[in-house]
Amino acid sequence: MATHTVTSGTPLNGPDGIFDSGKIGPGKFFVQKFTEVGEFPYYCTIHPWRTGLVSVVSGHSYLPNVGSDFGDGSNVFDLEYKFNRLVDRASIDESAKSISFELKGNTINDDDTLTLFLPAALISGISSVSIDGTMTEEFAQEFEDEITILIINEVPSDAKSITITGTTIVPEFGTITIIILGIAIISVIAISVNSKLNIIPRS
Questions:
Q1: 153: domain range?
Q2: What's the distance, CA 90 to chain centroid?
Q3: Residue 143's domain is classified under what CATH number?
Q4: How far is CA 52 from CA 17, 28, 40, 41, 164, in A?
Q5: Residue 42 forms part of a structural domain
Q6: Residue 12 and residue 19: Cα distance in Å, rounded?
Q7: Is the same domain home to 46 and 70?
Q8: Residue 83, CB half-sphere, CA atoms under 13 Å: how many?
Q9: Which of 27, 113, 162, 175 is 20 to 30 Å apart from 84, CA to CA?
Q10: Digits of tens for pLDDT over the chain (203 positions)?
Q11: Same domain, yes or no, for 118 and 48?
């Protein structure tokens, strides 16, 4: 095994001074924290044909397919969030008009704020938030294009769940299902009326 470096820049232009690991021996590693978005090429100054590129993007994490196991499964959302841990496994309680999320993993930084981007079609009229079953007042809401941005502060690093209660929750039946059901009911009523009219004897 050989010694290497992780040096920002390119073999053609040389180091650009953004980061440099120095010589890394076998079994050692180098950690670099990025505070700006962008693309950062790097190479090994000892073996300049060994190159790479770090792409740092600004964005949030996603919890996919929220609502897929609820109702007829036609209301599915890819939920966007920002947190220093993993937000996992959404569970919808229609009777309580609430949605719960499991929190997993270790913290990756000291920011204890959880920000959830909640579509109004999923939940709206948020009235309460609880952490591990205990109500918290440490939350705020912002609204943007049918999205509720829910900001929950001071989430403990060992918290296991977040439950959000609103005035409406994703309906058990999707819009198309409701339309079909409505048409079916109207059709049954029309057939019944016609049937009654047909059996009236003529005088």
A1: 61-169
A2: 10
A3: 2.60.40
A4: 16, 18, 9, 6, 43
A5: yes
A6: 17
A7: no
A8: 30
A9: 27
A10: 789 999 999 999 999 999 999 999 988 888 887 777 778 999 999 999 999 988 776 678 888 889 887 766 677 898 999 998 889 889 999 899 999 999 998 887 889 999 999 999 999 999 999 999 999 999 999 999 899 999 999 999 999 999 999 999 886 444 444 455 456 556 656 555 555 555 555 55
A11: no
* d(C-alpha 138, C-alpha 128), whole Å: 10
* 39 shares its domain with 84: no
Alpha-carbon distance of 45 to 51, in angstroms, equals 10
How many domains are contained in the chain?
A: 2
Residues 11, 79, single domain; the answer is no
Same domain flag for 121 and 102: yes
